Structures are given as structure tokens and as C-alpha cells.
Amino acid sequence: MFRWDLVWQYLTLQDPNSVFLNALWTTVWISVLAQAIGVILGLFLALMRMSRYPFLNWPARAYIWFFRGSPLLVQVLLLYDGLPRVLSSLLLPAWACVVVAFSLNEGAYMSEIVRAGITSVDPGQMEAAKSLGMRFSLGMRRIILPQAARVIIPPLGNEFNNMLKTTSIASVIGLIELTGAAETYGSQDFVIFELLIVATVYYLLLTTIWGFIQAWIENRLDPNRKLKTDINQKTLAARMLGFGSPRTGGVGTITGGR
Amino acid sequence: MSDTRDTLPAGYRGESGLEMVRAEKIVKRFGDLTVLNGVDLSVKRGQVVVIIGPSGSGKTTMLRCINHLEKIDDGRIYIEGELMGYRIVNGKPVEDREANIARIRAQIGFVFQRFNLFPHMTALENIIEAPIHVLHESKDVVVERAHSLLAKVGLAEKANAFPHRLSGGQQQRVAIARALAMNPKLMLFDEATSALDPELVGEVLKVMRQLAEEGMTMVVVTHEMGFARDVADHVIFMDKAVIVEQGTPEQVFDHCENERTRNFLGMIK
Q1: CB under 8 Å to B88, separation ≥6 — which residues?
Q2: Average pLDDT rounded to a whole number, residues B112-127
Q3: CB–CB of B112 and A136 under 8 A?
Q4: CA B22, CA A80: separation in Å to the nearest integer?
Q5: CB under 8 Å to B200, separation ≥6 — which residues?
Q6: CA distance A213 to chain B (A)
Q7: SS3 of A202, please?
Q8: A237 alpha-carbon distance from chain centroid
Q9: What is the pLDDT of residue A190?
């Protein structure tokens, strides 16, 4: 018998112990933290990767190769199962393993996005900055990165969308995020299916809300803002499904899903 | 290990003090292609030196070597007696520290063919950016200077305009104002009007002419022969990585001695 009552109860956060409320929060804060660290890491990796010094260039390439070349789940498990064997004094709790693995992984993907953004800026910009007496770091900070941001932010938005969903992997090591909550609490009374439906609804809620935020951000960044009216003319359904110009959340992305 | 800032002995000083630019036997290669093959250059304070020549002659590269936007493979460049881009370690030139290069660059204004204005900033913000963040001058002082520079190039009302809203000639004038905001002692112009529509060339040349009349030391790479004839103190004709002929505008344009110079000028007419 299908427990619609349970679905409703959990969906409206009326469950005892506020299981899904906490799980929702866990999903969100892990995503935000891992993405934030990933962006910063990606920036440094991109600069290392573009350096002409081999001692910066090669480690960056090796790092990117490893983290893009192996599955995220395996990286999480290596940390969770492997770290205690190697450093028995350092026992990272499940959430820390997830945040570390996700951040390191995301850094590798972000580095390619950041690199694409930086190289998209006209080389004349840095030349102008240098000829005005700016050092490389100042030119990067004030001139190049603000322009690179326009190219970086749309794929970054897609990365965060992926991140929200990829947190479900953490359920494998027992973390109570949305998927973990559904599996753990659902197994108690054989209502996994019902709770997975609840989790799915919450994932859709998160990604849809993010979709609107992303579109708003990209709209703000568009220099032709006043001329573009098609955002407002698209139907709700079209916007939700991400149709539009590649700048405003189109279907094609640079990195795709994992 | 000795590390000295190589400065010129007194014998190199020109009549009006140190030469602003002294380049000795500059060699520059891009892979197999030699773009500068032993070029010497001397620019005195207040002089306007114009470099002409066919494309590929090395004239733009020579200009870019002066403020070390291009590294050199041999030779030395001195900016008012100070070695540019390198320091001498154990008798050999070694790439200088970024801070030193940036410091010297801040005293040289460079105007690009493609303007290279910062698109995410207004005209005013373009101009005040470097004085504030490189020279650490106070914002009020810099803003005031920026307004007067904009007025000087005839764009006082465009202070809050973004570059993409300005015509090419207007953008280039903002670029010149941006370079002047750093109070440079030397201005380098890399084909400053070559990317402009013909009717916009005049307004930029007018600004350059005014600068020259005010006594700015300028090295100008250009195809504008009228400007060269009227404004230059010294004209240099380059072809195939060397200086072929140089002299006063009269000497080069009216009484040139070299066949190649004559051919080039004939083509220009």
C-alpha cells in the first residue's frame, strides 16, 4: 500500500525529528561550501596551469588529470576508507570527507572553466595594464578577472546545479543529506520509495530555484541588458527547462554532467 | 655574484641631459624570423621621433621593446640612463624583477593601435585606474586630473561613457588621456590611427600634435606621412629588421638617399 500520507507529511516538513529539513540544509551547505572552495582552488590551478614555469605547470596538470580522470565516488571512498589506514590519528567524519573530496574534485573542473574565461579576454588588456605600470597580479585582479567572470559565471552556474545533485553520492558513506535521509529513514518502515519521491521533489525545488537565480545573475551580467526582452517573453516552462541563448542557461554546457 | 643596476656613464648624456631612450644593437627573433637585426635608437628629451616603414619591418616590435612588452635577444635599452627589463648579474643580462620593470613602465605611456581600453570601466574610470592603484595617488586629486585630461582631448562630456559607446577616435583619445594620467616622461604611439576610419584620424592626430608642441618626448610609429613631415624632429625608415635611413623630415622625405626608401615613399604617394 502506497503511503501518500507519509509523502505529504515529509514533504511539508511535518515529520518528527525534522529529518528532511536537516537533510535539505546539509545538501545546501555542502554544495555551497564545496563549490566555493572549488572556485578558489580552480582559480589557483588555472593560473598554475597557464604558468610558463614547469614546476607550477606540471603539478597542476597532474592534479587536473587525476581528479577529472577518476570517479568522484571513488575519490570520496578513498578518503573515507583509506585515510584511517594511512593516518590512523586523523579520522575525518563523513561530512568532512565529502567536503574535501568534492572541493578537490570541483577545483579540477573549475580550473578548466576559469582558464577558458581568462584566455577569452583579449591579450591587449593585460598589455594595456602592464604598460600602465600594473604588475601581473594587479592586472589580473582589476582588469582580467572581472572580464573573465562574464565567461566563467554561466558554466559556474551549471556546475553548482550539478553539485546540488551530486551530493546524493554522499549517502553511500552514510551522510544524511536528502538521498541519505530517504534511504536511512525509509528503510525502517519499508517506505524508501515514498521518501525517495520526497527527496526528488526537494532536489527539483533546489535546482529550479537555482535556475531562476542563475538566470537573474546572467541577466544582470549581460551588457546588452536593456535591449534583451526575450527573458521576460519566455514562458515559465521554457525558462525552467533552460531554453534560451547559451548565455542565459541553454542546454549545452562546456562541461556537461558527470 | 654581483647585481648592479646598469646605468650609463656620463659620456652618454646628450646635450639636453640624459637621452630619454637609448637602444643599442637590438636583436629580436620570433623563432626563426629575425625581426630586429641590430637596431640603434636615440631619443633626446623633448624630441619627436617618427618611425616609418612597410609592415613586417620591425618598427612596431622596436617600439614594444622600449617598454619591454617584448623581450630582446641581444642589445640594451636605456630609459633615461636606466637599463630597461634586465639587470646585470656577473656581467650578463638577466630578466629584471617585475617590480622594477613595472616601475619604469609607469613612466612610459603607450598608446595601442587597438586602443585596449578597459571595457568594464567608464572613460573616467579607465583614466583614474592606474594612478590610483599603481601610483597610490588620492582619488580626488586623480579624478580632477582625469577631468582636465578629458577636456584636453576634447571629451569632457564623455567621462561616464563606456568604451563601447564611443567612436574609435574617441576611444583612442581616451586611451591617450589614460596614458597621460600617469604623467609619463615618454609617450610611445603604436600606429595609433591605423585602426580608425579616415574621418576620425584627424582628431587623434590633433591631440598628438598638441602633445608634441607641449614638449613631450614621443616615439611614433605611423603611416601618416603628413604628420611625420610636420611634427617629427627625426624620421627613421625601417625595412626588413634594420634601419635603412634616418634624418630630419626634409632629409628623408625630400632628399632620401636610399633606393628602398625611395620605393617605399613612392608607394605611399
Answers
A1: B2, B3, B4, B6, B94
A2: 96
A3: no
A4: 64
A5: B167, B168, B169, B193
A6: 23
A7: helix
A8: 24
A9: 85
Least CB–CB distance from A143: residue in B99, B110, B118: B118
User: Which three cell numbers mark A146?
Assistant: 572581472
Condensed to tens digits (0 to 9), the pLDDT of residues B128-152 reads 999 999 999 999 999 999 999 999 9
- Could you tell me how far CA A131 lies from the centroid of its own chain? 37
Instruction: Supply A52's cell numbers.
Output: 610558463
pLDDT on residue B16: 44
By DSSP bridging, strand B21-30 and strand B74-79 are antiparallel
Q: What is the ipTM of this complex?
A: 0.91
Residue B150 and residue B175: Cα distance in Å, rounded? 10
A147–chain B nearest CA distance, Å? 7
Q: Work out whether the CA dihedral A196, A198, A200, A206 comes out positive or negative.
A: negative
Q: Could you tell me if B81 and B18 are in contact, meaning their C-beta atoms sit under 8 angstroms apart?
A: yes
Give the whole-angstrom CA distance, residue B119 versus residue B205: 23
Q: Where are the domains of chain A?
A: 4-223, 227-258
**A4-223: CATH superfamily:** MetI-like (1.10.3720.10)
